[in-house]
Amino acid sequence: MNTVFALAGIVIKELYRRKDFYVLFVLTAVITIAAASVQFFHDSHIVRYVKDLCLLLIWISALLVTIAMAARQIPSERENRTIFPLLAKPVTRGQVILGKFLGCWLASGIALVVFYLFFAIVTGTREQNWPVLNYIQALLLQWIMLGIVTAMTLLGSIFLAAPSSTVTIVFTIVAGILFLGRHLNVVAIHNTEPLRDIIYTIYFLIPHLELFDVRERLVNDWGLVNWLDCLLAALYGAGYMMLFLLLAWLGFRRKNLSVS
């Protein structure tokens, strides 16, 4: 495990060295300014709209940072030929996959903490309301979702040629799941065989990332989600993480690492 944590530490340091980290601070500043404008309107409905906008930006920016960071891990090691001395230490391919995953997932968690900390401070000072547990719960659920996305992206980076392709395809898939995934069963009902079975199969196979989205509860101050439901969601997310990591490991152990 020391090897896995060492690899994860390298990935986390990469977050600070690359532009992603500075983009994160810029986006955080934009969110803070947007939330601060709530004081100008003096309207509870406007307050909710701005909070909704801030949370949407948090989700989009966190997804972009996570997917971009995970997509370049394995390809960059191959292109820079650092994968060969890494595997000669000895480090197994499974440890590489697990270390890269853990590093990206922890780095995305750090990013989320920064986002939610600024969001909580700004909205709290304007509304004089500090639902700390709600923020912590929303952060943890979103972090679990990002774990699934991280594992999915690592899997894609094994088989796709370029990080840009991985980012584009994974982000499109994730956006499709978030916006359309919950409605596929309804779409299936209105179709005939065999299309109905195909849509139902997709519906039951995809990870339903929308289950981790509690933005509406935060915006409308609906209170906490039952912690047992959160635990079940965490187990659901862990299952998909393990599945994607297993597939990534199986693909990586068979992959020719030489660069032509």
Write up what this structure looks like.
By secondary structure, the protein is an all-alpha fold. The protein has one domain (2-253). Helices cover 80% and strands 0% of the residues. The chain is built from 13 helices and no strands. The protein has helices at residues 2-17, 19-36, 38-41, 44-71, 73-79, 83-87, 93-127, 132-159, 163-180, 184-189, 195-205, 215-220, 227-253. Helix 2 (19-36) runs antiparallel to helix 4 (44-71) and helix 7 (93-127) packs antiparallel against helix 8. The two termini are 33 Å apart.
Label this structure with key terms:
260 residues, mainly alpha, globular
Topology readout:
Blueprint: H1 2-17, H2 19-36, H3 38-41, H4 44-71, H5 73-79, H6 83-87, H7 93-127, H8 132-159, H9 163-180, H10 184-189, H11 195-205, H12 215-220, H13 227-253
Can you summarize this structure?
This protein has 260 residues and is mainly alpha-helical.
Strand content: under 5%
- SSE string: HHHHHHHHHHHHH
Q: Please mark out the parts with pLDDT under 50 across 5 or more consecutive residues, or reply none.
A: none
What gyration radius follows from the Cα positions, in whole Å? Answer: 20 Å
Q: Sheet bearing the most strands, described?
A: none
Overall number of domains: 1
In helices, the fraction of residues equals: over 70%
Quaternary organization: single chain
Derived from helix and strand composition plus strand pairing, the structural class reads mainly alpha
User: What separation lies between the terminal Cα atoms?
Assistant: 33 Å
Shape: globular
| Helical segment count | 13
Q: Overall mean pLDDT score?
A: 86
Say how many strands there are. Answer: 0
